[in-house]
Amino acid sequence: MALFEVFQTTFFLALLSLRTYQSEVLAERLPLTPVSLKVSTNSARQSLHLQWTVQNLPYHQELKMVFQIQISRIETSNVIWVGNYSTTVKWNQVLHWSWESELPLECATHFVRIKSAVDDARFPEPNFWSNWSSWEEVNVQDSLGQDILFVFPKDKLVEEGANVTICYVSRNIQNNVSCYWEGQQIYGEQLDPHVSVFHLSSVPFIRKTGADMYCEVSQGNVSKGIKGIVLFVSKVLEEPKDFSCETQDFKTLHCTWDPGVDTALGWSKQPSQSYTLFESFSGEKKLCTHKNWCNWQITQDSQETYNFTLIAENYLRKRSVNILFNLTHQVYPMNPFSVNFENVNVTNAIMTWKVHSMKNNFTYLCQIEVYCEGKMMQYNVSVKVNGEYLLSELEPATEYMAQVRCADASHFWKWSQWSGQKFTTLEAAPSEAPDVWRNVNSEPGSHIVTLFWKPLSKLHANGKILFYNVVVENLDKPSRAEIHSIPAPAKSTKLTLDRHSYQIWVTANNSVGASPASVIVISADPENQEVEEERIVDTEGGFSLSWKPQPGDVVGYVVDWCDHPQYTLCDLQWKNVDPNATSTVISTDAFRPGVRYNFRIYGLSTKRIARLLEKKTGYSQELAPSDNPHVLVDKLTSHSFTLSWKYYSTESQPGFIQGYHVYLKSKARQCHPRFEKAVLSDGSECCKYKIDNPEEKALIVDNLKPKSFYEFFVTPFTSAGEGPNATFTKVTTPDEHSSMLIYILLPMFFCVLLIMIVCYLKSQWIKETCYPDIPDPYKSSILSLIKFKEKPHLTIMNVSDCIPDAIEVVSKPEGTKIQFRKSLTETDLTQPNYLYLLPTEKNYCGPGPFICFENLTYNQAASDSGSCGHVPVPLQPSPSQLGLMISPENVQKALEKNYMNSLGEISAGETSLNYVSQLASPMSGDKDSLPTNPVEPPHCSEYKRQMAVPLCLASPPPTENSSLSSITLLNPGEHYR
Amino acid sequence: MNWRQGRGHGADLCLPLPARLCLLTLLSPPLSSAAPISPAEPISQAYSLALYMQKNTSTLLQTYLQYQGSPFSDPGFSAPELQLSSLPPATAFFKTWHALDDGERLSLAQGAFLALTQHLQLVGDDQSDLNPGSPILLAQLGAARLRAQGLLGNMAAIMTALGLPIPPEEDTLGLVAFGASAFERKCRGYVVTREYGHWTDRAVRDLALLKAKYPA
C-alpha cells in the first residue's frame, strides 16, 4: 500500500513537471487569447457585463493573468475607457467583469474588446499581450421601441452630491426637444443627431419622492408629448454617533446610538438604513429592528470584553463604528427601591433602601440628596445590598424629600435613576418668645389694651402653633392672674384692664409645648400723649427716624406705625430697635404714595413699660391734593365778597397742604393789588392769590366793581402741586343802588302785608261796614237824598220791627226758570198794567223799563200768571248791588237820578204806594234774572228787593184793614196813602 | 385585499347622501327583484351620482398633479397627448355619440368606468408607494374608485331595467407594466385622473339624455 502511494506521488510530480514545461512552451508560443467575449447590459445599473474564457490555457493550470479592456462609444475609434483587470485564471474558467458607464447605455452604442497577458511570477520573462479580441458592439437603442422620445436613466438612485449624466434619444430629428430639471430648462450637448446628453454635477437632495427631469417634444408649436425620469437622490448615510452599550443586570447589553438622518426614499426606491450589530470576539451578528437601539443577549458569563461594530447600511453606502469595552465597566444600575425612613424624631431620621443584587462582591456607590425648602444636602454611601444612612441635623417639624441613586462603586459608568420618598421630622416646643407689641387706648376708668404678636418663624415655631397664651397679672394688688388662650392663627387680642399696672406674658404653643414668654407691662398712668408731631420725609424708599437718646435705663426702643392708616383695621406694625440706637429706617413695600404714615417711637424701660417718646408723620411720596374745598361765597356786596372753606380738612390729604391758590377771573385786564397774573392750563389768563397758611381758610376779595361778573376757583397745594382742575364758580356783584331799593321795597312789602292781615282779621267789621248783607236803611245814602228833598214824613221801616206772618219757600226747577223767563219775555208784549215807577230807557228790551214792586212769594197769582214775572228792573243793577264795582261817585249820581226821577213821578202822579216788605226764601230765579249781579246774596236767606206795589194792582182793593192780610205796612201809621 | 376594503369603507363614510344611496344600490343585487324595474329610478340615481362625481373630478386631478412634482405640479400643466392604450378615450365626435343607441352608449360608459376603477386602483397603489405621507391624495383616489364602482352598479341597474345585456367584467388593464418607471407611473396616474373627469362629464351627458328619454 505504501509502495503504491510512493509510486503515485512520483508519477504526479513527473506529470506536473511535464505540464509546466508544456505551458512554458505554450505561453511562449501560443498566446492565451480571451475568447468567447460576450457583453450584456444592465440598464438599471448602467453597466456592461463582460464574460469570456481564455483559450490555450493548460489543463488544470492556474495562471495569474492581466486583461486589458477597451471600451469605445459610438464608434470603435472613440475609446472612452481602457483598463486592466488582473485575476487568476483556471482552465476552462468563464471570466466575468463589469463596467459601469456614467452615460446611460441606451443613449450610445458601446464597443468592447479585450486582450490578455500572463502576469505570473513563474514567468519572469517580459510579458507580451495577446491580440485584441474583436470589437463587441453593445446597442441597446435598437430595443427601445417606437416611441418618439426616450429619457435615461430611469429611476436612478444616487447619493447627494453625485454627478449624473442624463440623456435622451429622439427618434425624429425634426422634433424640437426641450428638457427641464426641476422645472428649470437645461441645455445639453448633442452626442449625435438623435441623442443629447446633460451633465448634472453634485445633485442636491430635493425630496424623498425624487427629483424630476423631463423633456418635451414639440414640432413647431405643437406639443407631441413629454417624457421624463425621476432621479432619486439619497442623503448621504451618516456614521452612527454616540454609540455605547451598557448592562443593568449582566444578562442583556443595551446598545444605543444616534442614527442621524434617515435616508429612506419614496417609491420604495430605498428603505431606511439598516443597523447591524457585530461582536468580533464571539463572531455573532444581530440585525437591529430599531433605528437607535438594540439589545444584545449575554450568553457567556465568562466573556468580559466585548468588541462591538455597529454597521449602518443603505443601498448606496455602508458606515460603521466600533467600541471595545469591559462589561463590568458599563454597568448602569437599576433604581434603588424600598426607600424608607426609620426612627424619625425631631432632628434625625434613618433612611433605608435596597438595591438589586448583581454579581458577587458588587459594591454600589449610592448618593443621597435631602431637600428642604430650597436647601439641599448631599451624602455618599457605599452599599452592598441594603442601604442605610442616618440623616442628622434636621430641623423639627419639617418635611424633607430624600432621594437616592446608585452607581458601580468600582467602575463608575452611570448613575441609576433617583428613587425618593418624603418624610417629616417631629415637632419640638417653640424656641423663641413671640414678638409682642401693644396699643393702649385710655378710657375713663380703664385701658383698652390691644396686644399684637408676630407669628413665629418656622425656624422658631418648631411645629404648628396651635394657640397663644396671654397671662395678665395685676401688679398693684395681689390677685389671680388671668389666662387667655387665643387659638392660632390670630395675631392680636383685646383686653380691657382697669387703671392698674399690669404685667402681661404671651407664649406661643404647639403640640409639644410653650415658647418662652414675651413680657410687656401696662402702666397705670395714661400714656403721655402730649408729644409733638414732627414731619418727616421718605428718603430712598424708607422713612428715616431718629430720636433723642433717653436718660435712664432703656432696654430698647419700639417704633410702631400702621401699614394702612386709611382703613379701620390699619394693620399695626412695629419694629424693635436696639437700646443703643437713636435712629432707624422704616422701609416696607406696603408704603403707598399719597398716604400719611404716623410713627410713634416708644422707649422700653427695664420694667418693660413703654413710654411714648416722639411722633413722626410723613408721606412716602406726597401727591397733589385729590379734591378742592367746597367754597362758600359770603358777604356779597357791590364791591367785595368773602370766600370761605372752613370745613376743608387738611389732614386727610395725600400730601401736607401748604396753602391755597385762589384764582379770580374778571373782565378787567388788571389784577387786584394782592393778586398776580397767572395762566391756566387751558391757556386763559386770570389772577392768582396765594395763601401760604393752610389753616387760613377764608379770603375777602374786595375792590370789586358793582354789577360785575367774577369767577373764582380755590385749590389747595402740596409740595407735589395743586388740586385737580375744576370749574370756576361765578359771582356777580350787585348794583350799588339795588340795596337802596331793597331798603324801600322791603318796608313797603311789610306794610302791605300788615294791612292785608288787619283786613283779614277785621273782615267782618269791614263787611258790615262797607257791604253788609242786609243794608241798614238808616245808613243808606237815600236818607240824605230824602233829607235833601225835605220829606219829613218819609220814614224807613225797621226790619226788626217787621213781624213776618208767614214764610213760603219756593223752589223752582231749572226748566221752570227758563219757562219763566220765556213767559216774561212774552209778557213784555202784553204790557201789563204795572206801575212804572222809573222812566223807561231805550236800550231795554221791553217796551220800557219799569219798577215793579213785586213780591213773588206773596203775590202767587201774579207770579203764576207771569203778569208780574217780567222784571226789567234787575237789568239795571241796583246801587246797593253794584256798590263794590262801580265808583261811589257814579253810584251816587245814579242813585240821585233814579231816586229823583222816581220820586218826582211819584210826587207828580200823587200815587199812593204801599211799601211791602217780606222775608222770603231765596229764589234761584232771581239769580237768573240778575246775571250781572256780582254779589250773590247768601243762600240761607235772602232779602228780596223792596218793591213799590201800585195800589191799583193790589187786589183786593186796599181798604184800611183788609190789606193787612197780604200787605204789611212798613210802618203802621206812617204808610202812604 | 382586506386593507383595500377597509380603505373603501373609510371613504364611504365621507360620501354624501346621494352617493351613499347609489352605493346601497350597488350593494343590493340589481337582478334579485323579479318585478320589472322602471328605468327612471336607476337613471335618476345614476344621474345624481354622476353629477356629484363631476363636482369632485377637477379637485382630484389638481390634488394628483400637486403631489407629482414638476412638470405635473407646474401651473396650467396639461398634456392631452398622453394617453393610455388600456383606457378608452372619452372624447368622441358629437354626431357619432348622438347616433349611439342606449345600449351602445351605456355599454361604452360601462366599459370605460370598469377600466377606470381598475386604473384608479393601480394609481392608488402607485401613489401609496410614491407618496405614502399624503393621505389626502390617497383618500381622494380611493373615493373616486368607489364612486366609479357605484356608477357601474347604477348603470347595470339601468341596463337591467331596459332589458339590455350587461357586458361581462373584463380585466381591462391586462398585462400591466410593473416595471414602469416612476415618471411613467406619474404620467399614467395623470391620464387616469384626467380621463376619469372626462368620462364623468360624458356620463352626465349620457344619463341626461336617458333621463329625458325615460322621465319618471
TrEMBL record, chain A:
This is Oncostatin-M-specific receptor subunit beta. It comes from the Eukaryota. It is a single-pass type I membrane protein. The lineage of its organism: Eukaryota, Metazoa, Chordata, Craniata, Vertebrata. One of its GO terms (biological process) is positive regulation of cell population proliferation. The keyword Transferase does not apply. Residues 955-977 are annotated as: Disordered. GO terms for molecular function: growth factor binding; oncostatin-M receptor activity. Keywords: Disulfide bond, Glycoprotein, Membrane, Receptor, Repeat, Signal, Transmembrane, Transmembrane helix. One of its GO terms (cellular component) is oncostatin-M receptor complex. The gene is OSMR. InterPro entries: FN3_dom (IPR003961), FN3_sf (IPR036116), Hematopoietin_rcpt_Gp130_CS (IPR003529), Ig-like_fold (IPR013783), LIF-R-like_Ig-like (IPR048497), LIFR_D2 (IPR040817), Type1_Cytokine_Rcpt_Type2 (IPR052672). Heterodimer composed of OSMR and IL6ST (type II OSM receptor). Heterodimer with IL31RA to form the IL31 receptor. Belongs to the type I cytokine receptor family. Type 2 subfamily. Residues 1-27 form the signal peptide. The chain crosses the membrane at residues 740-761. Residues 335-428, 433-528, 625-736 form the Fibronectin type-III domain. Residues 960-969 have a biased composition (Polar residues).
From TrEMBL, chain B:
GO terms for biological process: cell surface receptor signaling pathway; neuroblast proliferation; positive regulation of neuroblast proliferation. InterPro entries: 4_helix_cytokine-like_core (IPR009079), PRF/CT (IPR010681). SUPFAM superfamilies: 4-helical cytokines. The keyword Ribonucleoprotein does not apply. GO terms for molecular function: ciliary neurotrophic factor receptor binding; cytokine activity; leukemia inhibitory factor receptor binding. Residues 1-34 form the signal peptide. It is found in: Secreted. Keywords: Cytokine, Developmental protein, Glycoprotein, Secreted, Signal. Coiled coil: none annotated. One of its GO terms (cellular component) is extracellular space. Belongs to the IL-6 superfamily. This is Cardiotrophin-2. It comes from Aotus nancymaae.
